[in-house]
Automatic annotation (TrEMBL):
Family statement: Belongs to the FMO family.
Protein known as: indole-3-pyruvate monooxygenase
Main EC class the enzyme belongs to: oxidoreductase
Cofactor(s) listed in the protein's UniProt record: FAD
Taxon lineage: Eukaryota, Viridiplantae, Streptophyta, Embryophyta, Tracheophyta
Length: 434
């Protein structure tokens, strides 16, 4: 048995040494590695720090919250009141409005990072991550801005790239023939460049609705493609935010009864949206959100523009020709540009080599909320609840609590393993490690 144990020990040692010496640069991180420096990643890092656990955030872009800073339109505000969008441990400034602007939210995140001394490694794109069972650690391969490659090793890996990592750009027949601009909302900033033009917005979620309103405010002539049934609710009801009122009612009444209340009040305040081409789904807004993650639209003024005829409604597109769009109901119209408000998707399957926790189909955790935050072998997920910042904050606390229970003892064992058992192999320890 001693002989067999010696052979096994040599095999593991050789694999560890090979892993290190074949890497352009090897970095050992004693705490968790967090992939993504958006609100979710920052929330986990702050909660971990509160428990004395260091972490290292790897971010592919050059700034915090790159989706907010680089891929959102200028007029964007939080759709929910600020008290439902706070990250753990730090509220919004009291002088912020109920619905903070994009710029105010980014400022809040930057102050959050300063307060908790969170310093992500920017321009570091994670291209692969997998658990190496022979050594009991995650191996994370990342590439820097100049193409330099690093291999990180850590005991815990937190996936914080979120549900909105990559823009969804559907293929539409005839796109190459259209001739006009076809852009995704991820590159749309303001309607000022579309003044006087006829613009078709594809997608009737919150982004598509707001882009149409922004185009109207810049003297463009927008139309909206409504492909599916959609719930449009007023942003506020009875002097309170619709979301806040819903959360309060759910404490006392079943979801279906709350849904019925929301739809009755919406009908009184907004009228029959189906007469405008906006059919409602069969399921109520809260039940639909709970089952599919599809968020209802909170109207901020777009519906009035639809009622006045400033925004026209069209069904799905059949095909495009030269600056002309043919719709499935047979109508055609001429447009100068098309804006795709077709949303985003997770990119986790492209880099995480793991099949148990995340679905390869949509890149989301297989287990539904509230059980999708923890996998096996030290793998965690934050920002995938389909419940916005409130859901991310809940998961961030859970993750920090879970890691905080065992990290100190495991970190000591890891240090011994790396610096004693790996037979003198040169290992760079991250400056973010304890």
């Amino acid at each position: 048995m001693d002989y067999l144990g010696e052979i096994e020990g040599k095999r593991i040692h050789d694999r560890r040494t090979s892993m290190l010496t074949n890497s352009p640069r090897f970095v050992y991180v004693s705490g968790p590695i967090i992939v993504g420096a958006g609100p979710s990643g920052l929330a986990v890092a702050a909660c971990l720090k509160e428990k004395g656990v260091p972490s290292l955030i790897l971010e592919r872009c050059n700034c915090l919250a790159s989706l907010w800073q680089l891929k959102t339109y200028d007029r964007l505000r939080l759709h929910l009141p600020k008290q439902f969008c706070e990250l753990p441990l730090m509220g919004f400034p009291k002088n912020f409005p109920t619905y903070p602007t994009k710029q105010q939210f980014v400022a809040y995140l930057e102050e959050y990072a300063r307060r908790y001394e969170i310093r992500p490694v920017f321009n570091e794109t994670v291209e692969g991550a997998e658990f190496d069972g022979s050594i009991g650690y995650w191996r994370v391969r990342a590439v820097g801005a100049k193409g330099e490659e690093r291999q990180y090793v850590c005991r815990w890996l937190v996936v914080a790239t979120g549900e909105n990592a990559e823009a969804v750009r559907p293929e539409i027949e005839g796109m190459e023939e259209f001739g006009g601009d076809i852009v995704h909302t991820s590159v749309y900033k303001s309607g000022d460049v579309f003044g006087g033009k006829k613009v078709l917005v594809v997608g009737c979620g919150n982004s598509g609705m707001e882009v149409c309103l922004d185009l109207c405010n810049h003297n463009a002539r927008p139309s909206l493609v409504v492909r599916d049934a959609v719930h449009v609710l007023p942003q506020e009801m009875l002097g309170k935010s619709t979301f806040g009122l819903s959360m309060w009612l759910l404490k006392w009444f079943p979801m279906r009864l709350v849904d019925r209340f929301l739809l009755i009040v919406s009908r009184l305040l907004l009228g029959d949206t189906s007469r405008l081409g906006l059919d409602r789904p069969n399921l109520g807004p809260l039940e639909l959100k709970n089952l599919s993650g599809k968020t209802p639209v909170l109207d901020v003024g777009t519906l009035a523009k639809i009622k006045s005829g400033d925004i026209k409604i069209y069904p799905s597109i059949r095909r495009l020709t030269h600056q002309t769009v043919e719709f499935i109901d047979g109508r055609t119209d001429i447009f100068d540009a098309i804006i795709l408000a077709t949303g985003y998707k997770s990119n986790v399957p492209s880099w995480l080599k793991e099949r148990e926790m995340f679905s390869e189909k949509d890149g989301l955790p297989r287990k539904p909320f509230p059980n999708g935050w923890k996998g096996v072998c030290g793998l965690y997920a934050v920002g995938f609840t389909k419940r916005g910042l409130l859901g991310a904050s809940m998961d961030a606390r859970r993750i920090a609590e879970d890691i905080g229970k065992c990290w100190k003892s495991e970190a000591k064992q890891t240090n011994f393993s790396l610096h004693s058992r790996w037979n003198g192999t040169v290992v760079q320890t991250s400056k973010f490690s304890a």
